[in-house]
Structures are given as structure tokens and as C-alpha cells.
Design goal:
The complex is a heterodimer of chains A (316) and B (279). Chain A is built from 14 helices and nine strands. Chain A has 316 residues and is α/β, with parallel strands linked by helices. Chain B folds into two domains: 33 residues, no CATH class; 223 residues, Alpha-Beta Complex (2-enoyl-CoA Hydratase, Chain A, domain 1). Classes of the chains: A alpha/beta (316), B alpha/beta (279). β9 of chain A pairs antiparallel with β4 of chain B.
């Protein structure tokens, strides 16, 4: 059986295996109707399971190690990508990648959090958790994009900003705060897409923009369900309840007025069909970008301010 | 005389009892000095012996920073709307009601306008007493409005932070308050109006990662805990004990993230002088 199979995917995979076995027998027997029936059953089961995922299951899908990551999107949907490195202050953070690319006819600056796929690359990418240098590299390149009137596309996929000693020493909080401040007034369009995990300030550090898009099976919240469980329930065991309580799925965030649009994923999740996922996102990014490019800069920046001003629920 | 009769009079319990009558005396956490509440108050809630800064609330800061009777509070009644109907071991709505009753505050920040040595200031001060000073929609909105008030009246903005970070019980909406407050500060900065950020113990998480670190001038009270991640989380991550003084005001000063450390007794005077320079 393939590795990286989530618990709730198992019944589907079991049925698929059965179909495969029957196909092998088909030469001797006429069982095509049975196979067809079973195939329909798989489709039905798939729909059933994926239409009724719990919030915790969504979190698991968002972390699926076979999902497309930032660099996959960049390589599959853009051309002539030139990666740019370093914050010009301290170093180059491998947990955030950035560079210039062509999205068909549009020049764009793409900046995204990058996870690794195996132990070695995960260590290199620090599991997608950036240090202050990552945020400062992102900011440097956003200012560069502003200077040359190039729109910015960011991709969020992080379990959080790195909670390390050195990160604190070099001003993790200041780096994130500075980005929120500068991004809110950047004079070019910014489109933000949550492609995996959107964990708190670490994600938001490159997440202020004119349009906030969210892939169907991703999460975005103030804290991860595990950490929330450990603080509020004083145990790591309540992550399912914490995920429910935090209301952190794409549908939840659309309802809360935080994201503008949900990007549908292939049935079973983005990892089931990279090509389809990438082409869906590409088409939507282009559509959103072309709409934003029609706005005058003053209007664009004013709208962005008002967008975040609307977020929040209180009683007066 | 019996052999068991006590001869010496000077035998006393080894340690002093620390359960003092309520409201009369307080013990310094740093040096153990017992101080009368009245004396503490006249010393702006600092230990006379070791200068330890007791944690105080917005009312106290307002009392010694602003010219007498000049402070007017705004948006006093704003309360949390419990947007997620959040429940952990307790309902968030019940937590809110209980905290309001206990603290006498409606949420974790007080905002308004007042005068410092005759100069008009828009002001926000957080309260750690209210769910750890956490920032949800109410804190974000009230601070954003206070910044707007500074923008419209063309006056300086001062914020005193005291917070464990963003409030979990409002999920992503709490997170968005970081962006909301920072974007309003960006507009204030474009209008070239000063923002002074004062950090007190503790200032961590989402508050540090937004307005608290965005001051034109950033100052901190002595020995305040200031950071992004909490010390416990960092210790878990690196699997080592943290160095002495890590994430304290003096550490931030040494690493270049704050302008200076201010003792509470000098706070008003320093603010007044800064405002004079920047306006």
C-alpha cells in the first residue's frame, strides 16, 4: 500500500485495489458489470467521504506530504522563473522562496513558504518555518516589485514562524509586524493564496493583500489545533475539538469574511492531481490579477485598508 | 522549674507568613519586600527597595500619565460578539461575562484621548487582567479607531501593550486584527504623525508582531518579558534552558529592538519631551 495514506482515505484505496484485482481476472471471466458497479461505488464513496470531512480531517489534508508546494506551482504555472535570494541584512532563508516569473503575459513577483518532501529537504527548508530573514527577504522583494510596478503573488504554507532563540534575538516579531505595515500600503496589487497550512502570524507575515484566496482543503487560523489544545485543554489530546472550535477551514473563513474565494481542489485533494490543481489556480490567479490591474493605485490601496478594517465581530 | 519550660524568648517561626490582609499590604515578587498599598501607589506601583515594576492596569497608567481630569474614554461599551460560538472547557461567552464581572472591564484595552503636559494625545492601554490581555476583534477595532482619531485630529498616538498575544477564542478573526491595526498605523505614518509604543510585562505573540513593534519610538519598562514566541515554546523547540535575561527589556535593548528602557516614574516626563521633539 502507498505511504502517506490518511485514515479516512483507506476504504477508498481498499476498493480501488479490489477493482485492480478484478481487472486482472477479467481475461478469463466476464465481470465487466461487476467492475463497473464497483467503480461507481468508489466514486460514490469518495464523494461521501470528501463532502463530509471534519475540520480535523481538512487539517490533515492540508498537511498531506504529497500536496503541491510553492515551487511546484511556480514551475508548473509560470515561465522563466528567476529565484532571488537573501535579505541583504543577515542571510537567505530557505523556508521562503521568491523570484520573478511570467504568468503567461504577466510579469509577477512570486513569494511563498516552502516545505520539504523528505527529511533532508525538510531540514533544508526548516519545515517551512521561517526566521526573520525570510520575512525581510520577502519585504525586500515586494519593495523591488513596487519599484518596477510588478504585481505580487504570495503563497502561504507554514506550520508557523520558527520559535527559536536566534529568531527572537533577530526580531521575529518586528520582521512580521514590519511586513504587515508595508504590505498594507504597497502600491502594486497583491494576491494571497493559502495553499496548505496558514498558521498564525507566521503565515500572515506574507498574507496581507487585495484578494485572499484559499484552496478548498487548507486551514488558516490564529493557532494550530494542537497548540490550541495544549493551552486551552492543557493536553495535546483535544486537537479534533480544537479544530472544530477554531472554525479554520476555507468555508469557515469565507463565512467570517476573511477570504474572498475558495479554489476547488481535485476530488480527494490537491495531491491527487497536481496538474489539475495547478491549472485551476493559474486560471483564477490570472482572472483576479487582470481585475486588480484595472484599478488605479490610490483606489487599490484604499480598498485594501478598508478590506482589513471590515474584519472583526463586536457588539457596541 | 520544669525542664521543659522555654527559657529563651526569641524563638519565632522560620519564615514570615505571606498571607497578608487583603488590599493592605503587598509583597514584592522580586525582593520579597512587604509594602503598604498606599506607599506602593505613591511610588507608581514600583518597589521602593528594588524598583520592581508591579503589573498594573489601564486605569493606573491613565492616572499618572495624563493631566488630571483630562482623559476621556471612547468606545467604552464595545464587547466581544463571540463570532465562532467558541467552546473549550468552558463557553467563551461565559468566560467573557465572568471576566467582565470580575475585572470591571469590558475587554482587554481602554482607549480615548487626554492631555500630557497640555498636549493632546490619542491613547490605548491594554489590560492583562482581561483574558491575558489577549487581542480579539474588540481590542483590534478599538485600537484601530484610536489610531484613526489620532489621524483625524492630527495628534500623536501612544499605545501601552500588555498582552499574551492574539485571542484564540476568535480564531482567524483575532489574527486579522494584526493586519487591521498595522494598516491603520501605516496610514498614520504616511501623515507623518508620531506613534510611541510602550511595552510592559508581558508583551508577546500577535501584539508584538503588529502594533507594539511598529512605534517610531519603542520604549519598555524594566525587565518586561517581550517576544514573539513564549519562552516555554522556545525551550521545547531548542531542548535547552534559555539564557538568563532572555526576552527581557534589557535583552531587546542590547539587540537593537527598543529605543530605551524607562522607569515608570520617568515615563510621563520622557513621553512629554518626545512629543515635543516629534510634533
Amino acid at each position: 500500500m502507498a505511504k502517506n495514506v490518511l485514515d479516512f482515505e483507506k476504504p477508498i484505496i481498499a476498493l480501488e485495489k479490489k477493482i485492480e484485482e478484478m481487472r486482472r481476472l477479467e481475461g478469463d471471466l466476464d465481470i465487466s458489470t461487476e467492475i463497473k458497479n464497483l467503480e461507481e461505488k468508489v466514486l460514490q464513496l469518495r464523494k461521501n467521504i470528501y463532502d463530509n470531512l471534519t475540520r480535523w480531517q481538512r487539517v490533515q489534508l492540508a498537511r498531506h506530504p504529497e500536496r503541491p508546494y510553492t515551487l511546484d506551482y511556480i514551475y508548473m504555472m509560470t515561465e522563466n522563473f528567476i529565484e532571488l535570494h537573501g535579505d541583504r541584512l543577515f542571510g537567505d532563508d530557505h523556508a521562503i522562496v521568491a523570484g520573478l516569473a511570467k504568468l503567461d503575459q504577466h510579469k509577477v513577483m512570486i513569494i511563498g513558504q516552502q516545505k520539504g518532501r523528505d527529511t533532508k529537504s525538510n531540514l533544508f527548508r526548516n519545515f517551512g518555518m521561517s526566521n526573520p530573514e525570510g520575512y525581510r527577504k520577502a519585504l525586500r522583494l515586494m519593495k523591488l516589485a513596487e519599484k518596477f510596478k510588478i504585481p505580487v503573488i504570495t503563497m502561504l504554507d507554514t506550520p508557523g514562524a520558527y520559535p527559536g532563540l536566534e529568531a527572537e534575538k533577530r526580531g521575529q516579531a518586528e520582521a512580521i509586524a514590519r511586513n504587515l505595515f508595508e504590505m498594507s500600503r504597497l502600491r502594486v496589487p497583491i494576491i494571497v493564496t493559502i495553499i496548505g497550512e496558514g498558521a498564525s502570524g507566521g503565515a500572515l507575515g506574507i498574507g496581507v493583500g487585495d484578494r485572499i484566496l484559499m484552496l478548498q482543503n487548507t486551514w488558516y487560523s490564529v493557532i494550530s489545533p494542537e497548540s490550541c489544545s495544549s493551552i486551552l485543554w492543557r493536553s495535546w489530546e483535544y486537537k479534533e475539538q480544537a479544530a472544530e472550535a477554531l472554525k479554520l477551514t476555507a468555508e469557515d473563513l469565507l463565512e467570517q469574511g476573511i477570504v474572498d474565494r475558495i479554489i476547488p481542489e481535485p476530488l480527494g485533494g490537491a495531491h491527487k492531481d497536481h496538474q489539475l490543481m495547478v491549472s485551476t489556480l493559474k486560471a483564477i490567479l490570472k482572472e483576479e490579477l487582470e481585475a486588480l490591474l484595472k484599478l488605479k493605485t490610490e483606489k487599490l490601496v484604499q480598498n485594501r485598508l478598508e478590506k482589513f478594517a471590515r474584519m472583526g465581530v463586536y457588539v457596541e | 522549674m520544669g525542664w521543659f519550660t522555654r527559657k529563651k524568648e526569641n524563638i519565632s517561626p522560620a519564615s514570615k507568613k505571606s498571607d497578608l490582609p487583603d488590599g493592605q499590604w503587598q509583597k514584592c515578587e522580586e525582593c520579597g519586600e512587604i509594602i503598604h498599598t498606599k506607599q506602593l501607589e505613591s511610588n507608581l506601583w514600583c518597589c521602593a527597595k528594588c524598583n520592581y515594576h508591579f503589573r498594573i492596569g489601564s486605569d493606573q497608567y491613565i492616572s499618572f500619565l495624563f493631566d488630571a481630569g483630562s482623559f476621556r474614554e471612547s468606545n467604552k461599551k464595545m464587547r466581544s460578539g463571540d463570532p465562532l460560538q467558541f467552546v473549550d472547557t468552558k463557553k467563551y461567552s461565559e468566560r467573557i461575562t465572568a471576566t467582565i464581572k470580575k475585572s470591571g472591564l469590558n475587554d482587554a484595552v481602554k482607549t480615548g484621548m487626554g492631555k500630557i503636559d497640555g498636549k493632546k494625545i490619542s491613547f490605548a492601554c491594554m489590560d492583562f487582567n482581561f483574558i491575558g490581555g489577549s487581542m480579539g476583534s474588540v481590542v483590534g477595532e478599538k485600537i484601530a479607531r484610536a489610531i484613526d482619531a489620532a489621524y483625524e485630529e492630527k495628534i500623536p498616538m501612544i499605545i501601552i501593550s500588555q498582552s499574551g498575544g492574539a485571542r484564540m477564542m476568535e480564531g482567524a478573526l483575532s489574527l486579522m486584527q494584526l493586519a487591521k491595526t498595522s494598516s491603520r498605523l501605516a496610514r498614520l505614518a504616511e501623515a507623518k504623525l508620531p506613534f510611541i509604543s510602550i511595552l510592559t510585562d508581558p508583551t508577546t505573540g500577535g501584539v508584538t508582531a503588529s502594533f507594539a513593534m511598529l512605534g517610531d519610538i519603542i520604549i519598555a519598562e524594566p525587565k518586561a518579558l517581550i517576544g514573539f514566541a513564549g519562552p516555554r515554546v522556545i525551550k521545547q523547540t531548542i531542548g535547552k534552558d534559555l539564557p538568563e535575561g532572555f526576552q527581557r527589556s534589557e535583552f531587546l535593548l542590547e539587540n537593537g529592538f527598543i529605543d530605551f528602557i524607562v522607569s515608570r516614574k520617568e515615563m510621563k516626563e520622557k513621553l512629554s519631551r518626545l512629543i515635543e521633539y516629534l510634533t
